[in-house]
Amino acid sequence: MTLAREVAEAALGAAAEEHAEAVVLAERSGLARFAASEVHQPTLIENVVVNLRVVRDGRVGSAQTNRLDEDGLSELAGRAVEAAESARAEPGFPGLPSPEPVPEVEGHDEATAGLEPADLARIARAAIDAADPSPVYGFVTSGTSEIAVVSTTGISVEQSITDAMALIVAADESASGYAEQTAWALDGIDATAVAREATAKMARTRDAKTVDPGHYRAVLEPYAVGELLQHFAYDSFGALGLVEHRSFLAGKLGDKVFDERISISDDALDPGGLPKAFDFEGVPKQRVALIEDGFARGVVWDRETAALAGGGARSTGHAPPVLSRDYGPLPLALSVAGGEAGSVDELAGLVGDGIYVTRLHYLSTVAARDGVITGMTRDGTFRIRGGKIAEPLANLRFTVSVPEMLSEVPGLTRGVALINQNDFYGERYPFGVLAPALATARFTISGIGSSPGI
Amino acid sequence: MRQLCESAVEAALAAGAEYADARAVVRRSQSVSTKNGRIENVIDVETEGIGVRVLAGGAWGFACDRRLDAEGAVSAARRATAFALASSVGRSRALAPLEARSGSYRTPVAIDPFDVPLADKVDLCLRAEAALRHDTVVVTQASVRAQREHKVLFSSDGVEAEQELYETGAGIDAIAANDELSQLRSYPSAHGGSSAGAGWEYVEGLGLEREAPRVGEQAAALLHAEPCPAMVADAVIDAEQMALQVHESVGHPTELDRVYGTEASYAGTSFLKPGDLRSLTYGSEQMNVTADPTTPLGLGTFGFDDEGVPAERQPIVERGVLTGFLASRESAARLGAGRGGHMRAEGWSRMPLVRMTNLHLEPGAGTLEELVDGVKDGVFFETNRSWSIDDKRLNFQFGTQIAWEIRDGRLGSMLRDATYTGITPRFWGSLDAVGGPESWQMYGLTNCGKGQPGQGAHVSHGAAPCRFRGVQIGVGA
User: Fold this and answer.
1) What is the domain class of A3-165 according to CATH?
2) Do residues B158 and B169 make contact, with C-beta atoms less than 8 angstroms apart?
3) Which residues of B fall within a CB distance of 8 Å from A375?
4) pLDDT of A224 above 70
5) Contacts of A47 in chain B (CB under 8 A)
6) For residue B241, what are the β-bridge partners?
7) What is the pLDDT of residues A303-349, one digit of tens each?
8) Which residues constitute the domain of residue B301?
9) What is the pLDDT of residues B92-141, one digit of tens each?
């Protein structure tokens, strides 16, 4: 039994309520962050957080603590009861879920769980050495996250998830390149290869030119595709966005909305991603088809939003943590189907004349309903001329309608990469996007930013 | 808590650290949110633990433990020291000198927000939200929050600081929608409202119920407004949007860790260089920016930062010239100027980073009407909706929830989907007027992200409405 489940059961026992649920997230992680090729912010975290949700006469309240002794759990119960007593009865509250069988998933690796701080420091040093003499900025991290949900309705589920990641920006005053790798097992990443990819990209970015703002054809590497789609998904692929008319898919389910080459699902069961067996209510994860061959098929649901929407909507296993309930159910295992291109060079050939984008920076939604997002390109932007990746460009501001961008897609690479989307705020919960590189006929550059380099 | 911190520092020094500091933190927070007449969340959160930061072999190390007992403190200290030694490359790091001292600070609070029953907080949200309703408004929401953080810092340099910091905040939003559009209005600020370093009296003073009908009506009216056209014209920007403009295009670029590149892998760097101090023209002579962790009601108000440096007001931009950076003891020593004072950590489980405290655009003279009166053709922007800026903090693009055309010195028709864009020093160079003290307001943001692992910081910005000449307005997709 995991520590998380032990704590969840103890918290539920301390509550002694008729209707209650305990959710525990336990983290043990290390992160060796480096800048200018020196580890400067190495961080080790150990924490166990228990959230207790109490339901009294349809009134729902929650409390959270990381004090796991008898007094701490007893006070937790008292504060959760007070929260519930302070609330109003919610006629639409679907109640706590009943147990359902959860799928067996991969996602735990003993070697990764057993990594020591000295191991992380050694891996970081190897990456730094592999980049030498290029200065590198980034981190190597590994962690174990245990999740358990136990409730008075009989739910009792647990999972131990490991993850490892290397992220590197290789940069000097006038050049910069980027690479990252993420996996649920340490042997799924190669930090020295990440360093070599970043330095090779960096070397091609000197003497960057500019382009005029306007509409371009473009190739986006998986890093850029993953970040852009995850950002788009927050409003458009979750049920709450649909119910509240923020989603681009509002009123369009069943319609052809993207190029027929585009198929997107949310699939937390895929061993190629960062697998999860259940959501933060203990409801089993399901694969959800969001876009199939360009047609809008669905969004992800939790029980609360499904009850709100009515019409037979059911949870797909996407309840968020209690502190994120405002966002509604979120797709945190996006998977974009690959295409037929063998490489990004082949995609550049399909584009002919355009822009090549390695990664993005600081995205912001300009108009959610239209899927309009702005941001910057960074650490590897190039011109495409004559079907070849050509001279480097300054960082470019783009303002794109994602649906418009995906409405004409000349090609995608066959291979997909797992692109991390977790910035490690709060408690560690690894998630990412499985994305190919993508060519689009419509990418709008709206301004010119700084040159590559730090 | 003081004893635990002292034990941790002693354990770190015994394990080989040259320097160590330990922070024990106990934080409690409550939040209530309601949506469409339903309660979305009523939650009471507590977290506690100890974070130990060391310098060993010339390298930093940080480890934390949720257990506020001797075992947790010593364990964190030893792990931090071991991680630092494993990361060491054998060079030394200098810290700006800091006088040994002990002290305490407590946020002045008239009404302890934790004495206000949760049920009263629920009632306030539901009442305010009800007042937002309007025929085409499809989502109404309200939220209130309160936080109390008790923390003790003990360092091997002889600093002992005990602080109790309070925050309260609230906000309301209305989303109107039809078959084609969705439009948002918020009060008193976008993205969850505004917070202050104060007691419940701050929330009571916001007047959520009083403002709600206007907010709901404006959300509905935006569905019928014309989109903001693309043009180069004069812009008048309200204090709320100016607060974010200051945050993104002055606050972050003047963080000295970004200037030295140590944030390059995530938040980015800065267009500023260390040698720009006291020589770079940041903006027009109307531009005066001050970092002030002593400002009453600020979310960045404290007695000591998380390195133990006492709070002190510091000019950052004076009459348009860069005169200061936001620094840590280490980056101040490297620069050879200042003493730090801007190191803050999110709770006990994160390493302190250079952060904004309270960063203000100092007031000028005149009212909003007088600023508008000086514009022949332009746009008045109000309340942030979208924000993005490049990794060196040069190219930015902001969108606001609502805007108004300005014709011959008067506000005209309402505009939707308004955006403006610019390059930081060029934009600030076009600053033509800053409103006076009577229109200067402070806004508290709780969503400033930085660091790996990520940390959220709570910061405040005071600003008045401003007028800029020749701004690129409107960006199409």
Assistant:
1) alpha beta
2) no
3) 388
4) yes
5) 49, 64, 66, 349
6) none
7) 999 999 999 999 999 999 998 988 999 999 999 999 999 999 999 99
8) 227-473
9) 899 999 999 999 999 999 999 999 999 999 999 999 999 999 999 999 99
Which segments of A134-257 does DSSP mark as H helices, in order?
A: 191-203, 222-236, 239-243
Residues B356, B447, single domain; the answer is yes
Q: Where are the domains of chain A?
A: 3-165, 214-448
From the list B399, B417, B453, which residue is nearest A43 (CB)?
A: B453
Question: Do residues B198 and B389 lie in contact, with contact meaning Cβ atoms separated by under 8 Å?
Answer: no
Same domain, B201 and B243: no
CB of A145 within 8 A of CB of A165?
Answer: no
Residues B240 and B204 in one domain: no
- Chain A hits for B47, CB-CB cut-off 8 Å, are 49, 64-66
Residue B452 to residue A48, Cβ atoms within 8 A: no
Q: What is the DSSP string of B28-60?
A: EEEEEEEETTEEEEEEEEEEEEEEEEEEETTEE
* Closest partner CB to B449 (pick from A49, A83, A425): A425
- Are both B250 and B296 inside the same structural domain? yes
Q: Say whether both B242 and B131 belong to one domain.
A: no
* Nearest chain A alpha carbon to B248: A362
Is residue B173 domain-shared with residue B285, that is, in the same domain? no
Rounded to two decimals, the pTM is 0.96
Chain B contact set for A370 (CB, 8 A): 477
Check if A126 contacts B (Cβ < 8 Å): no
In chain B, which stretches have pLDDT less than 50? none
Q: Are A357 and A383 in contact (CB under 8 A)?
A: no
Q: Which residue of B has its CA nearest to A169?
A: B265
Same domain? For B206 and B239 the reply is no
Domain total in chain B: 2
B101 and B205 belong to one structural domain? yes
Nearest residue, CB atoms, A450 vs list B64, B392, B454 = B392
Percent of chain B with pLDDT over 90: 98
Strands B377-389, B231-237: parallel, antiparallel or unpaired by DSSP? parallel
